Known about the structure:
The structure holds two protein chains of two kinds. By secondary structure, chain A is mainly alpha-helical. Chain A contains five helices and no strands. Chain A starts with a helix and ends in a 12-residue tail after the last helix. Chain B is 74% helix and 0% strand.
Amino acid sequence: xxxxxxxxxxxxxxxxxxxxxxxxxxxxxxxxxxxxxxxxxxxxxxxxxxxxxxxxxxxxxxxxxxxxxxxxxxxxxxxxxxxxxxxxxxxxxxxxxxxxxxxxxxxxxxxxxxxxxxxxxxxxxxxxxxxxxxxxxxxxxxxxxxxxxxxxxxxxxxxxxxxxxxxxxxxxxxxxxxxxxxxxxxxxxxxxxxxxxxxxxxxxxxxxxxxxxxxx
Amino acid sequence: xxxxxxxxxxxxxxxxxxxxxxxxxxxxxxxxxxxxxxxxxxxxxxxxxxxxxxxxxxxxxxxxxxxxxxxxxxxxxxxxxxxxxxxxxxxxxxxxxxxxxxxxxxxxxxxxxxxxxxxxxxxxxxxxxxxxxxxxxxxxxxxxxxxxxxxxxxxxxxxxxxxxxxxxxxxxxxxxxxxxxxxxxxxxxxxxxxxxxxxxxxxxxxxxxxxxxxxxxxxxxxxxxxxxxxxxxxxxxxxxxxxxxxxxxxxxxxxxxxxxxxxxxxxxxxxxxxxxxxxxxxxxxxxxxxxxxxxxxxxxxxxxxxxxxxxxxxxxxxxxxxxxxxxxxxxxxxxxxxxxxxxxxxxxxxxxxxxxxxxxxxxxxxxxxxxxxxxxxxxxxxxxxxxxxxxxxxxxxxxxxxxxxxxxxxxxxxxxxxxxxxxxxxxxxxxxxxxxxxxxxxxxxxxxxxxxxxxxxxxxxxxxxxxxxxxxxxxxxxxxxxxxxxxxxxxxxxxxxxxxxxxxxxxxxxxxxxxxxxxxxxxxxxxxxxxxxxxxxxxxxxxxxxxxxxxxxxxxxxxxxxxx
Lengths: 216, 564
């Protein structure tokens, strides 16, 4: 029986032009191309993450440096206030504290006004939110059904996807290049602002030789 | 018996041949494809963007906080300097400090200009800016209204000085005087005015719409007039007032021009799609093939049709152009998906052919129209959906980037407003301490209010009160003056640095948006082949199916009989 069965099936298979034993070249090619694309994305993602992490690190260092310089200035203020307090300058400390609070209060009031306006706008906008239906899930379902609906995964369909995948890669690559360019622009602009702001605060500091008396 | 086996084998082979496309199932390959799909899903590549967005937001907040804190510490240093500076007259120190800053904010070009001139200019400016802002807001609002009324108003040029000549004010369509021209004559004049602005003479809307158009032109010209009147004053003020104003003007005009250009290009695109579909309809058999070749890529400009030219024009408009093209792609692909679902009869709905024409020119489905003409087949579902997903990702990116362009204008405006606000606050402070101005030069006489140091003014005793106006105690004037100086930092300068930081950090947000669009596109692109490969390998003739098949044909039974 075994002999017969094997012979019968082998004969069927060998004679049948419709049944292939070997893998389909279109599938192989699609798999190879998809694999190459995934490998490419993986490499680009690694590079992207490395660059982004480095940029974030630079930004974090810049923040730390600005915070430190601010703290140094704050130290000068605190020392001066202590000197004034202990040398009969209580009235000056009082007016300094009062006008500082005045400024903070004005900022708070201004921020509250801005917040109130923003809230009104947000409330109104949310009341008239334009309709926007995400069709992602519907598309995904349609794509799945498209595959289910087709009796077989045809060679043509796979071959088409192979060509399509190849053609589309270039377009997406352009977007990545754009992202890198923008990030570089941000780095340059941020460094420039940091330089100008810190210089301005430095100018307001009293001269080293006369650290107890701050001049504008 | 031998003949029987051969006949049966032949029949089975024949039957198998009827199941066209069948192949053997490969268990290992199926398992591998399933595990590849699982690995890819586990990669969750889009989560990188979510993490990056959260980093960008956190860093931006910390950066702004750090720079705001620096500004406030600078404020404290200045205030402390003014309040603790020995015996110097307070009014002198205060005026020097505020004058120095005011000259940074506004540095008049004229050599004879004084601080009083800056103040007068600011007051004049405040009045003019009210009219200007009202006109600008009205112009934008009525323009949107016109676009909603009829899309042909999209063709109106931007309300900029360069287009002033084209935007002539049409007459009022309501003759009050018996000597005025007839309403028909006024209407003709208004239509001519509109045609000249649009560069086309085929659009003659109703009188009510012409009236809205007239309001638009009126407010646009008013905005241009106010800008024209404000400009010399801004420029003459110099300093940060001038520079922030010029930068604001530049980005506003650029955005307005780009938006108008995108609106015009969008109208051209729609017309080109219609034209291509009509051309195809009227094409003879001999010219039909050429009419269906809508591929744009690789063609020289002189070989390109209007549709390719319109797409080319839009591609040069950056993200605003990309937004128009992506929107059109999503709409057109939706039409084709509807046709595929049987909602439309492709043969009867001309939108289907138009969509095929557009899809052939603007996507990688270049043969869509040609194939439809020959086989009546619409493009396959999967590539259409991939194209739609990519277009949707690009549309989201283009929308976000164009929102950033609007935000850029907003930050520039906030910076300019903050500069003006700071100047107003400083002048308010100077006004508060003005009554401390000494009536005679201080010289060696320091025992008067006008020549008193902060310490003396706060104590308030032993000083000769030489003030012209004695409304309140000197200490209160000091407090008010210093309070205003403090406010100039806490409110105006903080507002300035916050807007400046947001502006400076925009490229990081733009970079993130582009990365997100890029990843979303990759994801859409890979998802389908992965699914297809997995489906392919899950498919195939499995051993148990072969057994069932043979049983159905009685081959196993024959084998049993042979054995027996």
